[in-house]
Amino acid sequence: MALAVVVPAGFVPASQAQEAPRKSLGVVTITGGQSTSLPTQVPATMEGVDREQIERSVNATDSEDALRYLPSLLVRKRYVGDYNHAILSSRASGTGNSARSLVYADGILLSNLLGNGVGGLSFPPRWGLVTPEEIDRVDVMYGPFSAAYPGNSAGAVVDYVTRMPTKLEAHAKAGYVVQPFELYGTDATYRAWQTSASIGNKSGDLSWWVSVNRTDSEGQPLTFATRLASAGTPGGAGVPVTGAALVNNSAGAPWYVIGSATQYATRQDHFKVKLAYDFSGTLRATYTLGWWRNESAGNPASYLRNAAGAPVTSGAVSLGGATFAPLTGADFPLTRESLTHVMHGVGVKSRTGGEFDWEANASLYDYQRDTKRQNAGANVPPAAFTGGPGTVADGSGTGWIAFAWRGTWRPQGEKGPHIVDFGVQQDSYRLAYLTSAVPGNWLVDAAGPVASDTGGRTRLRSLWAQDVWSFAPGWKFVPGARVEQWTAYSGFTRIPGAAPAVNTDWPQRRESALSPKAALSWQWKPDVVLKGAVGRAVRFPTVAELYGATSTVNAQFINDPNLRPERSWTGELSAEKDLGNGTARLTFFTEDTRDALYNQTLFDPVANRNVSRVQNVGRIGTQGLEAAWSGNDVWARGLDLNASATYANSVIKENAGFVTTPGDTIGKRQPNIPRWRASMLASFRWNERWSTSIGARYSSRQFRTLDNSDVNGFAYMGVSRFFVVDLRAQVKLDRHLTAAFGIDNVNNDKYWNFHPYPQRSYFAELKADL
């Protein structure tokens, strides 16, 4: 896994101190704030947003909110503090493919490449280890066009640069969010509170920063108990009940929604220490400690009522004159999660601006504690709230270690025609996941008999190089290549209760890959740059996809130790014009992916649970256009505007597998990739104190299944179109205090991505700066 490298604040060599031309050879120019670690010399599409824009224009409660209005991006965030499903989507990578993007913060990998997407286990980036108020800027590179990154960069590479002080500064912030929510039989109001504080200073050669953050959040219900109307048996057996909502499911078939579940109440604590020491004017060492704790409770509620008006949570029930299967813990699951994750990052950087510079980075991410308890079987509310049988899943000890060394050679100095970057990397991942029955009290008792025990390791070793070659006036060519060796080992799957029992130690696997890259830019006119880029990306299976079989009362994940690596060729052609007070860009992009790695979740009505299966999909082809425009002081002084629109045609071309019948996926659209998506953000600075903004986000309808059988997007497990408008106002009360107020989804669009997204939400925050 490539470790991005960030030039810390105040650590800018003299050769880079002067501002570069705004457009030159397709090089991205970052103005203000810290430098990005992304390879700005590679002429590929990059977009970014800085701290001031985020604070003025975005109702940001989590770090992923900073990406909200960037072109072609979507984070599947379901509520404030969403820690297990907030997956990043890009041009040709959907919200089920978290392993097709890379997220870094200050050179430390936040992408959770232990797995891909969500299912029995979930693997979103570790967004919680960066808070919005510590972000200095965030930048995105679209596509696998730099040899410095592995095949997980096929979708996008995101780089967060966080604050490092140059003098004494201190900050405190308090925020509040309220969301009235109505859906099916739920009519409630959910709230979230956030408080944070940070302090930092630079004294001589030492810089330091300490920050703390607490989030108390209530999310809306995310899953629902159901019964297919066709599964009812005519007759009078079962308890007659009312309160169920009869609607069409995502496949268009009538079903009864009989209750809600996975309504999280979560408390998250974040603590971070950052240190930097300048040994000289050209050599700096950094250290980062991140600590994140999450205590969450997921609760269900029954919509069913008997003749006396009391809730019904167990036994067979009668709806519309038909009898349905007894209610169980799969319908009304309770969960209690306790997570403590620790992150360490160390870096040393030499930056002289001379003939040779180098840098080394290492990071460790450790699931110090990671347990999830859940009720099981016939143990349903209200009894389940106080005890009874269940399960406990323990992922403690899971994590990863990443190391990267990089050198930069300038044979003729910075003004010479060649700048050669090269490096070595090793990334190691370990998964350990033990699920056990708890026969007594699922809330507090120790683990009992083993239900499943899975784990394993993967390792990726890489060598890479690329040359920024200015071979003629107005031209730049960047060829590169990446050589990788991937090893999967120590894999095992043990499921004693299976029929027959599973007790397998998987053999070691080893594969190698070569990924060439090339990018070219031409300064066609003084204000127009033409760019082209192509790159191969090989995305190897994650350890969870290979070995992570899990089974709980309401969810099952089926692994495959024989998965093939995913191989993609991606290309883009761009024209970018400097408008003086802004930039306009038009990009054609294409991607051809073979053996695409996919997790597909389908509902098993017999077992009454969601079953996720990982598989290779033969070939997916994508072509599209992306238009983006941004400007400052547009039409009127103080008006800043950013807008983008993306069209993508992403289709399954080949696939030996199927969902129900052979060939049923051929010609179908890739899941979670809409044909159209667009965003717009306009902010206006009325004076030195007041600013307001309006943002809009649009997506056309999508499919979630490989055979596109989920024809109804506006339903549980469906993926719908949406159009959402957001508002924000910020006022500086004095030179120390700033208040902000906002509304997300002001038009109260009720939209879905398997789970329901938030409805209209109201924000208020107060910030103090020393």
UniProtKB/TrEMBL annotation:
InterPro entries: Beta-barrel_TonB, Beta-barrel_TonB_sf, Plug_dom, Plug_dom_sf, TonB-dep_rcpt-like
UniProt keywords, alphabetically: Cell outer membrane, Ion transport, Membrane, Receptor, Signal, TonB box, Transmembrane, Transmembrane beta strand, Transport
One GO term describing the cellular component: cell outer membrane
GO MF, one example: siderophore uptake transmembrane transporter activity
Record GO biological process: siderophore transmembrane transport
Residue runs in coiled coils: none
Family under the similarity heading: Belongs to the TonB-dependent receptor family.
Protein name: TonB-dependent receptor
Organism: Ramlibacter humi
